[in-house]
Queue: 4 jobs
Job 1
Amino acid sequence: MEKLGFAMIVDEIFTRLPAKAIGCLKCVCKDFRKELSTHFFEMMHSCRIGNSLHKKYLSLSNMSIVVDDVIGGNLDVVTNKQITFPGNVDPRFLRILASLNGLLLVSSEPSCCELILWNPTTRCHKLLSVSDFCQWYVRNCDAGGMYFEETNDLKVLHIKYFF
């Protein structure tokens, strides 16, 4: 029997795994992290998951995430999972500004003083220190955005509305 190549394992096996398993595989070794972090892999994984018959619908309820299966257009409640929100902030005070590849850019309200980058899948978050965010962000007018630069650096955008 021929040895399976690394590319075949990535293309045929890893692209079919759920996001949580991919997150764990990124911690195995540098080669896995490098390969599983490429834009090509992310697009392949998204296409495979998007074509899957096993779709999930996630919704927030108090301090838990409700995971529902979508079967023939109908919702079937599967599980409730307790999660910790970033910085132990009550979810009523979190405002989602942007999302990209599973990452959420959120601000804590009502004062909107903290800008947080959060990965709900891994439950990790990072407080972004933007000293003038509170002063310049207008809740009902401005928007946020994120993108990856060519150097694979995540960039956070503050999109101002001028009237």
Job 2
Amino acid sequence: MSNPVIRRSTTGCLTCKRRKKKCDEKRPRCERCLAGDFDCLGYGHLIEGGSPNTSRNGADIPVPPSEAIVPPSTQGNVYPSVMELDHSPNGAFLPLVNYIGSQIKSSTAFLVNFSERSPSIPKSPQLDSVERENMVDLVVSQYLRIANQAPFRPFPFAFDKAMANRARSSNLILKTMYIGARIVQALLDDTSPHLFVGWIDNFHRQISGTQPSAPETDVNSLADRLSALHDLAFYAFMLLNSPTGYSLLRQGVPIFLQLAAQSPQVWANDCTISISHALSPVRHEMSRFVLADTISSLAFGTAPLLNYDTTVHQDELSHGKYGFLEMVYSCPILFLVLIARTNSTRIARLMNQGSPSLADIQELEEHVQSWSPILDYTEKPPESIARLAIQECWRQATLIYAYMGMCGVNSTNDRIQPLVSQVAQLAETVEAGSPLETHLFIPCLVAGAAARKEKHRAVFRKKMLASQSIGARLLRGADFVVVLDHLWHGAAVEGSPVTWEDYVTSRYATVPVDT
């Protein structure tokens, strides 16, 4: 009796054929190769070899390039495009969202265009255990390449184990981290990173486009979705530009609100989110969203996506409790809360809904002046000095923004220029090319908007250019250099006095976002 013959696909990709693996035959690249990080060599050998099956039913006739580059997941997809999504949250959430009389719109044309030219993402629910572990291994290996560059302070835990555990926590997180790993790999190896922009679009609309008929209540599921959307926005910051990333971030508002509804302390009352409780380390997903929202509101000059209760609970803002955000992004949590307060107060002032009192300004000043950094005597002196300098820059920038954004004073105010000078001097102490240099983006942006001297402007411009690609942290800082150039050669030419609204006008002219 003859031995049974193992049948393998005769129409699979060349890589699977050489590896003697069953191919899923997805085009233009098979998902088995993508999941295992193999270079899929495609299906050209079928044409060259004249396979007898290719002309029988047309199933393997080469697809025209314009069609072959469309991901399989976009054909007949039940999910709407990012350009078609209705992002209005459930009516119960409306009081919390700053729509300023209009719906959130998407400005993700880049993503839609690129999604038509990118391979599909491996569908993790269909992967076997071996392929899942291949994805986890790739995630850990690539994230380790930037582990010493990305955070403001070294992680006090085994980074590789933490990344592996997180990747295994759910299919959603695994797929999101896998996209990030492939992007990091492409950026560091300089191998066409924009090929993965379509992955961001495809996966983003799967997450944001899947709205349950009733509000979702599973906390872990909501947290995973919010985390995934935040990460995808961050990838867009790295690969494309800040407006595109911000558009993706805004579409996470409904999910944030559903998650906040499960936390009575976060949902302070009918119309505000308690920022102190939202920054709780119990839910890093919410704290990262609040951080991104607050910093984006400052940089773009737009209203924050959520209405925050910015009451400072000093006992809850200790370094130990909120160390995660500061460890990664450098901004002391107290300053983040005060920046959020300035964002809200500025918008209220512009809409004639009240101005801050002298007592409000004095309270903010007292909070800023009373803050003190934590010194780590185990660090090398140069690194310790650089970290102290960066956090002092945050302190000065918080005051500059408060005076200009909250009080409405211009750049010639006696309180402003000494602070600008201090930021410039401190920024210069951070070595050029150091991974820490990228953490200066926001302080240099704020001080740059008020800078009157060319020597200060030159420092801020140089430091902001460090924040791009793999070096982007909160936003893509290099995108905002053109905003300051427009301001410096326009309203602020030759050191002319300007207000924060002059900066916002330059931002509108050079880096537009949909509102």
Job 3
Amino acid sequence: MANSYFQDGLTSSNGDGLGTLLSPPASNAASTAPRSNALQNRVTSVLSSSYADLDIRDTLSILDDRQLKNTSEARRNLRLDVQQELIECNGEIVQDFGKVAEQLKRVGTAIQNLNSSCAAMRKHIGAANRETGPMLDEAKSILNDRQQVEAKQQLLDAFKAHFVVSDADLAILTSTAEPVNDAFFRVLTRVKKIHQDSQVLLGTENQRLGLEILEQSSRQLNAAFQKLYRWIQREFKTLDLENPQISTAIRRALRVLAERPSLFQNCLDFFAEARETTMSNNFYAALTGSPVDQDHPVMGKAIELSAHDPLRYVSDMLAWAHAATVSEREALEVLFISEGDEIAKSIQAGIESEPWSRPDEGEDAPVFDGRKALNELVERDLAGVFRQLRQRTDQVIQSHEDATLAYKIANLVSFYGSIFAKLLHGRSVLLEALTPISESAMRSFRSIMRDHVANLHGDLAITPDDLHPPEFFVEALNDLKVLMKSYDTSVITTDRNQRVEGFQPILHEALDPFLTGCENIAKRMRSPDNHIFALNCLMATRSVLRLYAFADRSPELQPRMEEHESELTEAAYTWFLQESGLKELFENVNTTHDLASSYQDPKQLASMAQQLDAFLPTATEDARAFLAQLEDRALARRIIEQAAERFCGGFERVEELIVRADQERSRLVNGEAADDDDEEEQAVLREVFPRTSDEIRVLLTPPPFFLSHSSGVWHFGVQAWIAAISSLSVLFTSRCRASVVFFANCGDTMMHSNIWPQPPARHADKK
């Protein structure tokens, strides 16, 4: 609407609308000139105004909401209408404020009435206070005096109840005629509380009362602790730790007596001496079967009567000592170790209460360790038992000259030492008592082993005829098995390196000297006996050491075994050359020119061929007989196979030279144009020496006789048949057709007997 208004009313000066509006009539042009200038100024100001102003935009929005029409009357009355609306709004506001003023007048009247009432009440209260003031002051003074008297009476009663001990309680605390029971500990606790609280009285101006009570309570406490100390000593004389029902009174008494460290230590010393005597007597009774007294009979047989061998005797003694240590520790834990470390707290309190027990300046205050004190007490109780154990074990070691027994005892003692280490601390006196036993047993073991090795000079001079390990070496291996088993069952650690390292000294004493002796024996033998003997000894050693991983020396023994195996393979190869008669041929024939003399005189080559034919049928069995004294049959087979393979390789080389020599001879005689048939006729050496390398390999390869079992009958396998037939067929000469007929007939027999599966029809002609 506003836009339409300006579009209609404000047009350009050349337009009809604006020209009509702004141009005055022609008759009045002179009189209206100022008015037209003012109107132009207003229009200019309106046109220059920014319609982006918020006020103008709001004004235009209001005009738009009124929906005014753009008429001359509406434009004239617009201002008047707006002013009228403002006057009406102001009138409504004035009426509302008039109502508020009337209400404020009523509130002011009410406040004035309240002020009048309060003033009257203050007058009445002031008059009452003036009349009752003296009486209230007097009553307050009387009440204060009464409260002070009552407080003093309560304080006196509390003081008497807390700091004064009755004669009956004093008799319970100090009289030896009265028992040590709950009433005693109740009175003792009360007196300790009095002694502690009396120190508070020393902080007052008048310290006389505090000093008197402190001195009196100190005398009462000393008398009570002396009574408790004597009572505990009497109880210790009749105390039976084997009885699971230990009196709770003595445990409580020990915790209380710990507040006097000197008295408590005296009780521990007395108890340790008594228990050491008791445990020593019990150990002697367990050994001999003689009871200490009628009240404690010996259960079971005596150790000296039930132990059938020295190791069992030592083991039973150690087992008894271990059981006694465990039971003693458990009993002392029940007796001395309480929840919350009450004894430690009591000892610490006692040290603080005894100035002479405190450390000097610059020294650390000792901290009571209940577990450590318990271990020390157990050690003192069992010291006599371990002294007897050491003496008797040393007697067993010295009276038996047996290395395995000494080593078993050392391992047994070490095993129990590791068990005792879990029960006691690392620097235990009992562990230090076991260590010399183990060391003494090991010294005896080394001494006996060295004496045994020194006495083997006669056995080392004897060479075994069967090349088997000598008797002393077999005995050493058997003893080593016993030692390894003992070590395996006694060593607790699971770390492989530690187990291996721990057993190396034993191998050095129990195996290395005997291996060295066998090596010295082998050095005096001739080849191949020395290698067979050495391999037998090494194989026996390896089989024994492989039983336990910590003793396995395969990496160390393998190079030595491979060296002897290589030497033995060389000896077997030399044997093949000598027995076959081909040694001279293998050594002297390196080129075809070396065979030239055989064409003029083939007798020597024919003799070699005949000796080879005689050797081949039994070559494998003869080779096995050559290595029959080698105990490891698999190793012997491998050596024969390696030597045979080497022999076959040399034979192939000789065969190739013979074939080449015949070919060269044929070309020389008949020329290059000679056909194959002429070459075969001129192959003189091949006819004299007809054996082929394939035939040699078949005859020198041990047949793998695979067997199967069915219906209670053993059958040869297919490969066994093939090997057997091939071995028989090659016994014929290569030129003989009988070998072909023989092999074919055997094949037909195998076909018809269902040993070999029938071939397909298309291959029937190749049967």
Job 4
Amino acid sequence: MKKYIVFISLLFASISVHSQIHSVINLNITNDRGATPSWTYGFGVSHLATDGVDKELGEFDLPPAPPEGLYVYFEYIYNKFGVDEIIATNMDIKALPEEEHFYIKHKLNIKWSFSKEVYIKWNNLAFSEHIDSIFIKDPFDGQFVKADMKKKDSLLLTNNAFTVFYIHVYYSKNAASVIENEIISDYEVFPNPVVDILSVGKKDFKDLIVYSIDGRVIARFTGNEVISVNNLPRGLYFYLIDGIHYGKFIKQ
């Protein structure tokens, strides 16, 4: 009887830990004129967050941009009572999804005003262990501006033609895990590890992208294609299904 009690206790402890993740990364933003926005900026995911503005987590609806000066905000669309509303906020903390592995994208807007340079800094030593990889890119998938935020702690922007940037974050609730479950969910790939052909639990997905560990797009497949990874070198890869569902697999 004691063995069952211990097992059940451990099970609930595991569920509790996985369902209580609060990972927020703060950004320090300045420009070449010495301007520093008066708000605290950051992004992340939390079991305490909702789909709207959570003032208790430091999120606020920002006022309209002033005529001059550096102005920075995160932007997302919030559906309130069936009506889409564009939110401009200093913090973009998303609600924690149910998936074990998931992907979140944050949209960061910068109004340069008379700035010639904008400097963004973060503490990459304080990242949550649940973050597998994290990148900041321009809207063209990083063709002109791209930084691996795990490897760098800052980014200097010098081209004011770019006013929108996207922060791409890949999470695992169970840190450093590889899927080994016998029961495959809709958006998990199998076998894992894989030698040749990958399959997906949900057969009618539309799009699957394979990424390297440094965020490069390695391959792309549609739902009616054979997902052959035979030519990939051995190692760890990430995948994104239909732009939402994220996971990782090992190529043997």
